[in-house]
Design brief:
Elements: H1 10-21, H2 24-36, H3 40-68, H4 72-80, H5 84-118, H6 121-135, H7 139-148, H8 151-170, H9 172-180, H10 183-199, H11 205-212, H12 216-237, H13 244-249, H14 258-286, H15 299-310, H16 314-348, H17 352-367, H18 375-403, H19 405-413, H20 421-464
Helix pairs in contact: 1-9, 1-14, 1-16, 2-3, 2-12, 2-14, 3-4, 3-12, 3-14, 3-18, 3-19, 3-20, 4-5, 5-8, 5-16, 5-17, 5-18, 6-7, 6-15, 7-15, 8-9, 8-16, 8-17, 9-16, 10-14, 10-16, 11-14, 12-18, 12-20, 15-16, 16-17, 18-20, 19-20
Bound molecules: tryptophan (TRP).
Length: 465
């Protein structure tokens, strides 16, 4: 057997993990689910969830990965015994489901990026004016409808999957580490700059009000929908609940402080999402859009195209923005493909390039329906975030908290030294409160999904088939 690769540089792991975490979840998904959740009410629940569940959960994945040095399926089998391979199988399925539509959305960003070279964003919008007047919708929304489905969307989905397959086929070091290095600073700079600019827009004040001042009455009233939405978003954005962090930590040496690395990753990821909100909501309200939840999957595209159309230098900024997000998306996409690929390599002994190509092709095909109709985006996204990720995180907590807790604290302390009471506090948080919260969340997520299937999706089938 070939010796297992490890990270080429000390920062390689951090960069790759941040690269996995920071992606469409922060910039595309976070603003629109925050809008659907009513703004500040959602933000609070989300931040609490990240701190109280997300952070302990990322540590759980880290200790499992570093201890076993295996892909998630192998790791669970090694720790829990043979039945756990079916649980690991759920992770692989989750990877398939998420990556299939993730790639389509990443393709939209590449499209918006490339279109900036053809014409200014104002020029593009002008081209949609007459259709917009006819439909009674903003030109940017018509442009999004045009780009988000159809042949173009299909071709860009193909491109993203092809790129991901090539990067993963080349292997951990050369591929992933190189792709990630420039991305995080670029995103921070761009979003930071845009947030400052958004602050100067007349009328943006209402955006901050909406995004930052929570009404606790609203939270209490709506917790049953806020909790699963916030949980799904937290797991999605941190790349948790399907073994990405298990896989990445499996290539890790024992001299790293896992808590410090986890704090860095959670900090960057949450900070970038928060910044994205500071851009999107002020821009929305300044532009007269007072119901940010209605925009759905197009929210970020519609608000940003409008912004870049009206801004001096907007064309260049737009190219930079969409291009950077596309890179961020690619570094997340490859983490998803890496998990399913590592599984086939480790467990079935398939060569890396064959594994990457085979798994990538299946994912690609699963994503194709999304390029025809966005109902499939909801179908896959709700299933993955409301159910699969929560389930994945839950079973990991049960495994580490109840079945093999003794190794966990010991593994966590490597590279740190004595954890003091924090080690026990962590294990007990995992054992009881976090598991209870996740069970409730999973129940609510399943009910939501059943509602979606019997109402929205059944309705769509009735209309279209
Ligand atoms: N976290 C990434 C984002 O926010 C998406 C992602 C990558 C992911 N790998 C994952 C989500 C694993 C869930 C599980 O864009």
């Amino acid at each position: 057997m070939v010796q297992r690769e490890t990270w080429a540089t000390r920062t390689g792991f951090i960069l790759a993990a941040v690269g996995s975490a920071v992606g469409l979840g922060n910039i595309w998904r976070f603003p629109f689910v925050t809008g659907e959740g009513g703004g500040a009410a959602f933000l609070i629940v989300y931040l609490l969830f990240v701190a109280l569940v997300g952070f302990p959960a990322i540590l759980v994945e880290f200790v499992v990965g570093r201890r076993t040095e295996r892909n998630p399926v192998g790791a669970l089998m090694q720790l829990g015994g043979n039945v756990w391979k079916y649980v690991g199988g759920v992770f692989i399925v989750t990877g398939f489901v998420i990556l299939s539509y993730y790639s389509v959305v990443a393709g939209w960003f590449v499209r918006y990026f490339l279109e900036g070279f053809r014409d200014s964003y104002a020029g593009h919008l002008a081209g949609y004016e007459s259709a917009a007047a006819e439909a009674g919708e903003p030109a940017a929304a018509i442009m999004f409808a045009d780009f988000s489905t159809g042949t173009g969307a299909f071709l860009f989905h193909t491109l993203i999957m092809a790129l991901s397959i090539v990067i993963i086929a080349l292997g951990i070091r050369r591929g992933i580490e190189l792709a990630v290095k420039a991305m995080v600073p670029a995103i921070l700079l761009l979003l930071g700059g845009m947030a400052v600019w958004a602050f100067t827009l007349p009328g943006s004040g209402a955006g901050y009000q909406y995004y930052l001042s929570p009404d606790f009455g609203v939270i209490l009233e709506n917790w049953q929908s806020l909790l699963p939405a916030a949980a799904g978003q937290a797991f999605f954005t941190l790349s948790l609940g399907m073994g990405v962090m298990i896989t990445y930590a499996s290539y890790l040496g024992e001299d790293r402080s896992l808590t410090r690395d986890a704090a860095t990753i959670v900090g960057f990821d949450t900070g970038i999402a928060f910044l994205a909100g500071l851009v999107v909501f002020p821009v929305f309200f300044a532009g007269g859009i007072t119901e940010p939840g209605a925009g759905g999957a197009g929210a970020i595209f519609v608000s940003m195209t409008d912004a870049f159309a009206g801004l001096p230098g907007g064309r260049l900024l737009g190219i930079l923005f969409f291009g950077t997000v596309a890179i961020a998306a690619l570094s997340s996409a490859i983490s998803l493909l890496e998990v399913v690929t590592a599984y086939v390599i480790d467990e079935k002994g398939v060569e890396r390039w064959k594994a990457a190509l085979g798994m990538g092709t299946v994912v690609y095909l699963l994503g194709v329906p999304v390029t025809f109709d966005l109902i499939f985006l909801d179908l896959l996204d709700l299933f993955a975030n409301g159910i699969l990720l929560v389930f994945g995180a839950l079973v990991l907590m049960v495994l580490v908290g109840w079945i093999t807790p003794s190794f966990a604290v010991e593994e966590l302390s490597k590279g740190i030294g004595d954890l003091g009471v924090w080690g026990q506090a962590w294990i007990w948080a995992v054992r009881v409160p976090i598991i209870v919260v996740l069970v409730v969340t999973l129940y609510l997520g399943v009910t939501d999904y059943v509602d979606f299937l019997t109402q929205d999706f059944a309705g769509w089938i009735g209309e279209n088939l």
